[in-house]
Amino acid sequence: MSSSFHKNWLLAAVCLAALGMPLSFTGPAVVLPAIRDALGGSPVQLNWVTNAFMLSFGATLMAAGALADTYGRKRVFLLGLAVVALSSSLLMLAPGIAVFDLARGLQGLGSAAAFAAGTAALAQVFDGAARTRAFSLIGTSFGVGLSCGAILSGWLAESFGWRSVMLSPGAISLIALGIAAPGMHESRNPDAMGLDMPGTVTFTGALSLLTLGVLQAPDSGWGSPWVIAALAGAVLMGAAFIAIERRVAHPMLDLSLLRFPRFVGVQLLAAAPAYGFVVLLVLLPIRFIGLEGRSALEAGSFMFALSGPILVVPTLAASLAHRFSAGAISAAGLLVCAAGLFWLSRCAPGTPLHAIVWPLLLIGAGIGLPWGLMDGLAVSVVPRERAGMASGIFNTVRVAGEGIALALVGAGLTALVAWQLGRLPAHPAATSQAAQRMTTGDWSQALALLPGVDRAALLQAYGAAFGTLLCVLAGVTVLTAMVVFAFLRGETHAGAGAVALESSAC
To answer: Global pTM?
Structure first.
């Protein structure tokens, strides 16, 4: 077979893997009420349904890349796909929520291995303009999965049940594995230094303890010894990670890159979609299905309005990048996103689709402008010889930041709902538990915890809390826009949009 034949089949396999990854993220959010009904679980355990995947993916992405360079990119890519398929089967067969959460963490590990090794393998077989086109196709595949994931999950859930949603990423991974196994050539980096084990352990530990503390706080209280211990442990692990990375000869994350002001600006830009867009991919389906009682398919239609612009707006960003600085384009997009968040905050629960679709489109369109430039910026603002490490740091910050943002925003929403419920004529001791139930879409249990309060009052309290949260997120997004513009206003990057969504992750 010709070399180009092998290249194209490898590209197809990596694109399929990229298509399945957003399904692993958006799908469980759509069917979380069904998962709760089938497997039970406390609010904290239900929060781990999403966070376990995000945490394991973000914490191991860099380590997976190092393993691929050392032990073989084909080997790690195929192993990652196999792990995703295995974990999907475990999700379908899980007897309880604890096993389900563990399988979600395993799915994140497999996705990190497949993503890191697959993109590294492509970088070895494509050069120049062909490499740009290849990574653009990966970005497009990811965008299709992100945009259509919610509506596809809604259709699968209504047609075949929630377990079919869990199976879909595994089925896609098996197809990708079948394509890659016979035709993909093995490659590795002969100069690879292996895995930075101390750095990997401390980095993963810091993220895990931080996420654990934030998720447990609404249930146990921020003053709980367990929460304080988890957060203190995260700080200690983080400090140890920084100390280790400064001393080792070949660090997992080269912290000296943070000396470049523009690179710092790009990291701040990477965090913006986490709290301005990604958290809504989880919170809104829970609201639409669990609290408002909409069908999974209807909720998927709502979510398509939010994520659909990601398919087309990055192309506009690429065109604008020839005339305006990346800082100006990104800041303008974030301001549009902030306006959409504020508009959405005025939409009470039960708002019909024709009214709520406009703020959702505005949020998606706004975040699509910086989204189309971020990956190119991550490597353009540092010296060329450090581009690989810069891209690794950027993707790690982005994915890990999404997991942390989801935990923090979820805890903030719970606190706001509890405050709103405290204003109702209910027993004060029950408001915190009821708030946790509501933020996971379990309004029936919330009603049971608050006798004398009807569903309309609960929805009104939740709507007020959700609106306040969106206003806070809009304010943070505006502040980020100002800071990003200050850091990147002189940065022109005409080619950034050509690799729109390259290396994107959830």
So the answer is: 0.84
> What are the two backbone dihedrals, phi and then psi, of residue 312, each rounded to the nearest 5 degrees?
-120, -30
Cβ–Cβ under 8 Å, residues 361 and 218: no
Structural contact between residues 413 and 291, judged by C-beta atoms closer than 8 angstroms: no
362: part of which helix (H) or strand (E)? helix 353-380
Residue 12 has, within 13 A of its CA and on its CB side, a CA count of 16
Tens digits of residue pLDDT in 83-131: 999 999 999 999 999 999 999 999 999 998 998 888 888 877 777 777 7
Q: Is 126 left (phi over 0), alpha (psi -120 to 50) or beta?
A: beta
Closest CA to 27 of 143, 152, 111, 138: 152
**Is the CB of residue 133 less than 8 Å from the CB of residue 7?**
no
Highest mean pLDDT among 304-318, 348-362, 459-473: 459-473
- Give residue 441's Cα distance to chain centre: 20
Measured in residues, the chain has a length of 506
C-alpha to C-alpha distance for 298 and 309, rounded to whole angstroms: 18
Instruction: Pull the structure tokens for residue 314.
Output: 């990055």
Distance (Å, whole) CA 365 – CA 359: 10
What is the C-alpha separation between 161 and 404, in angstroms, rounded? 30
DSSP conformational letter for 274: I
Query: What are 383's two structure tokens?
Result: 């010296």
- Mention every residue, 6+ apart, whose C-beta is less than 8 A from residue 109: 56, 57, 60, 80, 83
Can you list the positions of beta strands (E) in 404-443? none
User: Are the CB atoms for 117 and 76 separated by under 8 Å?
Assistant: yes
Q: What's the CA gap between 273 and 279, in Å, rounded?
A: 8
DSSP string of 283-304, one letter each residue: HHHIIIIIIT---HHHHHHHHH
Cβ distance 328 to 475 under 8 Å? Answer: no
Query: CA 91 to CA 103: how far, in whole Å?
Result: 6
CA dist list (Å): 13 to 76, 181, 402 = 14, 9, 26
> CA angle 282-102-86, nearest 5°?
95
- The rounded distance, in Å, linking the Cα atoms of 42 and 158 is 25
Place of tokens 């604008």: 320
Pairwise CA distance, residues 458 & 453, whole Å:
7
pLDDT of residue 251 exceeding 60: yes
pLDDT of residue 344: 96
Among residues 162, 158, 190, 126, the alpha carbon closest in space to that of 37 is found at 162
How far apart are alpha carbons 103 and 215 in whole angstroms? 19
Query: What is residue 24's three-state secondary structure?
Result: helix
